[in-house]
TrEMBL record:
Species in which this protein is naturally found: Propionispira arboris
UniProt protein name: PAS domain S-box-containing protein
Domain ACT: 2-74
Domain of life: Bacteria
GO process terms (BP): regulation of DNA-templated transcription
InterPro entries reported for this sequence: ACT-like_dom_sf (IPR045865), ACT_dom (IPR002912), PAS (IPR000014), PAS-like_dom_sf (IPR035965), PAS_fold (IPR013767)
Lineage: Bacteria, Bacillati, Bacillota, Negativicutes, Selenomonadales
Amino acid sequence: MRIKVSYIDRVGIVFDIAYIFMHHQLNIVSMEVGINVIFLETEPMSIELEQPLLRDIAQISDITAVAQIELMPHEEKAEQLKAVLDAVTDGVVAIDSHGCITQYNPAAEKIMHTSTVHVIGKPLTDIFPCCLSLVDSIQSGSKSINREIFFEQTNSHYLVSSHPIMDRYKK
């Protein structure tokens, strides 16, 4: 079950909500806290358990609304990103700061003749050794536009670009 709890901010509100879960002997699987809103996910439960939980949360002082939701915010964002990447006709390969592939769209599968299941979580240079310059570009923080690479597995030339997204909090 996923719940959205809206509230007027005060000290201890998260504790009060967590206490209700503890009182009902329920585990919070995930939690996302925003401004005046908390999203909580629990294990699936029967309606007999849901209703008293929702009622008890709604009775906490300064709670303004309690509603069940379909997706947690991070799940909704992931679905939106997937929809965008699936619609793009250019191959998109995203890597993290360690050089491991985190996103790989259907166009990239088609262009590179390599399935998503074989690349996600693996170092880019293990799968595509020809892309070493892209990892360097990303690590240095510099853009690379239309750099030609040769991929031996497909005996093909590609134009690739990189656009590093830097963590503004990391130094």
